[in-house]
Amino acid sequence: MALAIEARDLRRTYRTRTGWLNPRRVAIDAVRGVDLDVRRGELFGLLGPNGAGKTTTIKMLNTLLIPTSGTARVCGFDVVSQTREVRKRIGYVFGGDRGLYDRLSGLDNLRYFAELYGVPAARQKRRIAELLELVGLAGRERDRVEGYSRGMRQRLHIARGLLHEPEVLFLDEPSIGVDPVAARELRSTVAGLAATGTTVLLTTHYMAEAEELCDRIAVIAGGEIQALGTADELKHYAQGRRVLEVQAFGVTDAQVKGIDLLPGVREASVEVLGTSQVLTVQSDAAVDVQADVLRALDGVRLGRVTARQPTLEDAYVTIVNGVDRTPATVTA
Amino acid sequence: MRLLTVGGVIAYRALFNWATPSMFVGTLLVAPLFQLLFFAYLGRQLGVADDTFYIVGNAVLSATLACVFGGTIAIANERRWGTLGHVLLSPRSRTLIFLGRALPYAGNGLLIAVFTLTVGSLLLGLRIPASAVPGLAVTFAVGSLSCACFGLTLGALGLRFRDVWLISNVSLALMLLLTGVNVPAEHLPEWMRVVGGWLPITHAASAARLLVAGEGFGAALPSLWREALVGLVYAVVAAVLLTLFEAESRRRASLDTL
To answer: What is the ipTM of this complex?
Structure first.
């Protein structure tokens, strides 16, 4: 089996020092033994909460960081000792507003990075035109980037990541802060890339994005891979459960804690959506907790109440909540 | 070669803070001219040296703002835009990428020095022998390039130290004092002369004064070689620092802290 990415027991510890007279040294284990095998042409998802180690893992794989221990190879080349070979074969795209030269046009940004990434002069013009078309920026390429919306910037990031036709593309939360329409276009672009044989390693917070796009998904939390499989395989983590969703206005933390302790309840969490809250309660499939939950919410204005089967997101919450998310911190 | 030239020019447009016409004219052309006039009138008042000394010295000095800050900006401003990670992911030579960035700033410096000398001479009535003009152009070019390489060294420090602009500001003040452009070198203590000898433009200023005095290009050549050597040393130091700090950033994640 040809592998695009192989990582073995990859670890990264950040060491910081604060203070001069009485220095305090802190070591944070951001990644604690990650093993990964990503096949060529695969669209692989890396899912995890903030601080789980996703970006650190990507930065070790794309050569920006050296692992504290362990090994990793991209397209067969070692990420520590064969950086130039790795860099020729990878593209890196991250979400957010930064990372582009605002004073330049989109076209000039691409021209400059085409030089940096070694795209031959004779191919640059055609390649840039193809990518502008691909990401939907044709016609706006001569505008300064400072006038671009976040979605346009994100698409320019992707175009830049693809300039040198990389074999492996790292996408680090590319849809963060992007509106739903732009996010849909972005997903369509990413799916198109995978169809052309590019290996994609995608990190994201969005379950729907991962489920729609990824062949396989790894859930990372506490710096370790907690689960790995297809979206359907991961859903098994929430198997044997049912989910109750309650739209509410004004649920307190104490009430959520109380619901978490009800007989049969496995997880309870609240998400704020606009002016309302959505209380999600996972329980054992054999136990109907609806009456107890509604009783616990006595006095709270309620909206829609729905019972449903578990989704990938429920499985993700199950996996992540079972992990001590605080990385080991050592003070010396 | 394209990375050196095309890449250098695009990076200049992307990163240089004073690339707009108003900023360029105000900061890089007009301000040095007033500085020249200030020192020339002060020199007249104190009787330290004649107008020629100040016109030539300040013409050479006028390139430093664009070159030293330009060289620093060429690297340190990557942090401002959050683009450093993408530049460091390039598989191409760092020396080519960053030395290419110094060239437009050296060109800027040459243009500014020529402008300052021309306008300063017209305002204060200095006559420059026509035979000295080609030699002066070479001298300004070498001085500007040397300055830009010095700026790159400071920019490389910007990979490690966030407050590199502090060093750039202090460096400009030191150049005003130690390079002999406004204070005759023979009036400085020995250690200051030694330090000045390793700063850019010191030897370019000496060469320019010889040329304006009609001594000929041959007389100015030793100073020009010394200026070129100083520039080369800074270029090598910049390349070494870039390599060291890039390796350190991978090991210590020092660039991630911003």
So the answer is: 0.86
